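#struct-queue
[09:14] JT: dropping the first one here, sequence first, then the structure tokens:
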Amino acid sequence: MNHSEETIHQSMGSRWADVPVQALSETDSTNTRLKEWAREGRIAAPYVLTADSQTAGRGRLGRRFVSPPGTGLYMSLLISPPENTDAGKITVLAAVAVCRAIHELTGLQPKIKWVNDLFLRGKKVCGILAERIDEGVIVGIGVNLKTPPGGFPPEAGVAGALDADIDRFALAGTIARYFLDGMERLDTDDAITYYRAHMPLIGQEIRYQKDGQEKSARVTGVSDDGGLMIEDDSGPHILRTGEVSLGSQVFEGL
């Protein structure tokens, strides 16, 4: 075990001392690596993988996740949740784990933009991608720690960075600790309560896509399984997946 992996394990705590950890300098995608290793029978859940950079990092809806070396934490966890575990709860838990870990190590308090983005100072600093496979669920997490030299490329949109003094491997271990602890309490309301408290969209006007059309709605809450509760011209309903767009004033509050 190298120094980086030792730091991750130390930050995970004694409760998770037996969980395998691997830290790579570069890979195509941490989610892709875990998916292939799990299907080949080389690893089993739980398992934690990090990389200093990704050559083919992926976000939701097939988007590229910019992952240059020396500026971010790119990690994936392979887990084996109980049968019939709602995918929304896992995404909620991942967002909460990252928020809590960042706050513990830096004092900064990111906000959550449904469904899986974290914002700080009006900029996106973290994206989360959960994928279900036969061997379990892979949760990919990318955190922008520093602004790259020359700034983020245009395709990164509203990307920003923590720009705080933080050890990426300590952050990886702390995220893993909060996440794995939370998986053992998934049936409690701890994570969703935190999620609601740090998701400032409630009461805000948003735009969302449905049947190829953009619609407007007001956010009324978050369901227990992480769905976005909205009300529009057709009445109240819940978004389980999709994209929401926000006005500039809402972004400034994130």
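[09:21] JT: and here's the second one, same format:
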Amino acid sequence: MEIINLGGTDKRLYELVAPLVMNPAVIRQNNNYPFKTLSKYIWYLAIDNDGVVGFIPLKPANKGYCIDNYYVKGDDKEIIGTLLDNIITDLCGSFVLTAVVHKRHVKDFIENGFITFLELKNYHKMEYTGER
């Protein structure tokens, strides 16, 4: 599996993720919430022989970045871990990384150094602690 990152309006990003973000099954998996991007976003994509198997867009926030509206094929914890590891490595230093996490992925984010600070009906709001 290869991890690449692209800017939020990079032409290649649209070519790679359009088949997913326009797929009704993928949108349902995201609780029918559309995927969004702007030029300031940084997208991390996991790619294997089947194409894009996961992505996590980073939205700039006041003191760091926020993860929201991500996709992981088959809810694969290895893909989640690899994407998060690459993001954390690239952002090394002082930053705040928050995430709006689907309930089904909370355990996977905890294993990658996140803690819950707010539990909602369908999501947890989590923050990276820097410890694994």
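[09:30] RK: nice, looked through the second one.
[09:31] RK: Helices lie at 11-21, 24-29, 77-90, 106-110.
[09:31] JT: good to know. The mean pLDDT is 91.
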